[in-house]
Amino acid sequence: MKRAKTYQEVIGETIEHMRVEKGWTQEELADKVGSSQSAIHRIEKGGQNISLEMIKKLSEALGNQILSINDSASQSFRIRGGKELHGEITVNTSKNAAVGLLCAALLNTGKTVLHRVARIEEVFRIIEVLESIGVKCHWTNRRRDLEIISPRELKLEEMDVEAARRTRSIIMFMGPLLHRYKKFRIPYAGGCSLGTRTVEPHLKALESFGLNIDAECNSGFYEVTVNQHTLNKYTDRYIVLTERGDTVTENVLMAAAMCPGKTTIVGASPNYMVQDVCFFLEKLGVKISGIGTTKLVVRGRSQFNMDVDYNLSEDPIEAMSFIAAALVTHSEITLLRAPIEFLEIELEVLKTMNMRYEKSMEYLSANGRTRLVDLTIRKSKLVAPVDKIHPMPFPGLNIDNLPFFSVIAAVAEGRTLIHDWVFENRAIYTTELANLNAKVELLDAHRIYVEGPTNWRAAELVAPQALRPAVVILIGMLAAPGTSILRNVYPINRGYQDFAVRLRHLGADIVPLTGI
């Protein structure tokens, strides 16, 4: 039986992942925190007790939270598992759409109102950055809607760098800002610890608008200059994306929105958050054809100064989280307002695993565009799929939904191969399920075998420093009889609003804890 990792080992692995992601050696990290290379080596191997002061120094140096000392009742969860869930839950609006739209609001110097914005940490970080540079952000309608007014002149030199480094979404400031400034700087992006996510596709795509970046000057910032001749050329632009990324596509869309000519984007992501940004830009008067496909044609405008409001679409990843929770706890629940267009492949794969479910007739989201259904997940005796489970760009199985299949596979009869080819080390995080007695075999950094069914066992663990893997561990704890503790749940709060409260609404015994 595999030995559960100690706190020192979990903290050490977290530090090592963050260091490697920044491209630092142990010696370089040691210099930044006033320590030695040998001490950093022992810390990363879990062989040295580490003080709270050192954890704080390492967190500041790495630009990410390693371990939280809880100053609120939301940083750790106690879960008494093994209980069935029941009832219905309404799917919240999309976290990924929200951060993209907050960045897109920089294009408009009029008043932008975003309706039903998820109140989550990732959104709060972007709001903190926006407010620090002079953007007025105000919650209205009982703190469900967000009113944004961007001034004509931003105070970029006063940017909240700490907040900016805690979210990868900051890179989407480039598209809007290149039209405002000849030179500016943006802190290196942070957020999830999922290996190196290159910014090269962003830089290459935005070159067509005159953007040039020095990302290798070791200043901790992307130093941006904009060639005004290239930017202001009234010519058609034809951009081929080398990576069908969501944020890359959104960045180019925002840059193209303020170019009066025609911009063709080939290899665009047609994913849900990109569609939300397209729908919002259309309300600003931008003409976009090809929404929902990999080829977008954008005809922009030179400026935006108007009052506009937009209703965000629902979150397919949150919907998948609740589907997984139902299946893993052998429960029956109903999801209201599930965005079916972005769940169809997932449901079909689960159908091959013997999942039983019912869906309502389709209806439209408040934005008038996104297709919704109500889903009832029935108790199901799952079996492993014949083929491997792997993600693909939309309309394939969503990359963010893949981790949920690892915990679902743990309750399915048989052996499931899961291939996470996108991220360098997310598959490694999945092995944390072994601490809950799941049978997980790591083949390499991208592939795992999961064998079910699982005789779940309660445990006390530190949440992985990546959003979806952290939720996967929480779902496993919901199924495990006995009392589990999940510490440092900031990664979950980054992407889910009141997740514990909503799980309690479905009958889960989960409460926040204070203390370390």
Could you explain the architecture of this structure?
- By secondary structure, the chain is an alpha+beta fold.
- A hairpin with a 6-residue loop joins strand 7 and strand 8.
- The chain is globular, with a radius of gyration of 23 Å.
- It starts with 6 loop residues before the first helix and ends with a strand.
- Strands 2, 14, 15, 16 and 17 form a 5-stranded mixed beta sheet that branches. The chain has a 4-stranded mixed beta sheet with strand order 21-22-1-23. Strands 4-5-3-13 form a 4-stranded mixed beta sheet.
- Mean pLDDT is 90; it is low at 70-74 and 191-196.
- The longest helix has 16 residues, at 7-22.
- It is 33% helix and 22% strand.
Overview features:
single chain; 516 residues; alpha+beta; four-stranded mixed β-sheet; 33% helix
How would the blueprint of this fold be written?
Layout lengths: L6 H16 L3 H8 L3 H8 L7 H11 L13 E6 L4 E5 L4 H10 L6 E5 L5 H12 L3 E5 L4 E5 L11 H5 L8 H4 L5 E5 L12 H7 L4 E4 L6 E6 L1 H5 L4 E4 L5 H12 L4 E5 L5 H12 L3 E3 L5 E5 L8 E4 L4 H13 L3 E8 L4 H9 L4 E3 L3 E2 L6 E7 L24 H8 L4 E6 L6 H5 L8 E4 L4 E6 L7 E3 L4 H13 L2 E6 L2 H6 L3 H7 L3 E5 L3
Parallel strand pairs: 2-14, 3-13, 9-10, 21-22
Antiparallel strand pairs: 1-22, 1-23, 3-5, 4-5, 6-8, 7-8, 10-12, 11-12, 14-17, 15-17, 16-17, 18-20, 19-20
